[in-house]
Design a protein that fits this description.
Length: 330
Amino acid sequence: GHAFKVSDWLILQGQPVQVVEITWRSTRFRNNDDVSFNVPNSQLAKETIVNLCFPTRLHAVRLRVTVDATAPPNFVKDALVTCTAAVPGVHPAPAPAAYLTAFDESGITYELKFWIDDDRLYQRIMDAVRTNCWYEFDRRRIAFSVPVRLLGRSRPKNTERNGLIVNLLSAQPLFALLSADQIQLLAAEARWMRFGRGETIIRQGSPGDSMFILGAGTAHVFSERDGRELRVGELQSGDCFGELSFLTGDPRSATVNACEDCEVVEIPKHAMGVLLRQQPALAEALSETLVQRQNAIQKHFARAEAGSRIPLGAEEKEGLLRRLRAFFEL
């Protein structure tokens, strides 16, 4: 018998191909570009063939990247594994893993190993992982190692970026009580990040103690309840999110996915703590925003369930205020 059957994916002469038809004289294959070709069975008998579907369809694929030697290895390996999360077609088990494979003049080379079971999606999966890799490395300030580094992309100067962040913070109703100096203080601690289309910016249930403002792009907000995920909102440039975890230390209450390339400003807890001590009335304004956001989510679920929920009122706001003051030790 044959070492493969119709519909199996093989590596033949270094190329991934799918078996379309087997006759006594020859075998027909189709490659990822939908081009079909026949190979005489007498010639196939001399080839080394790797069957990607045997014993099961699940098999590992590898991706190599070389980065600047100054990036700490564990930091790079964590970033690489993160790039496979939520890519359709990448299996969660066995878990993806990254390995440091070489040191040389150009930098440090790593190999990312992850598992797939559908080779029709191979190019799409590799593209998604590589794309995520660019955005993840950009956010973590990990530089790819390329000979033309000097000709590479230039980052906006810090002063230019700081100006954009100041404008974004000043436009936030949430920060209307802050002076120009306090806004500057917050901007100096904020971090500017880019997320690619389809990436998850925050995930429901995960820990977090920062909040975000969408600087550019649009993002969808999803909330899961009783095993059902519901889209509960859309964020536009200038909108803030993630403020519940930021202000109370609770796990993230919703998932936010980038619908298109997004630019996001992240504000860390420690920067906010300084301002809350300087400006006690700020805690009240933040609780108010929180109650409005929670009410909007409640309405979406109430509509979905065709029932009604009681809007959060003064009591809940007081509760949030208490948790906020406890979290920031005010």
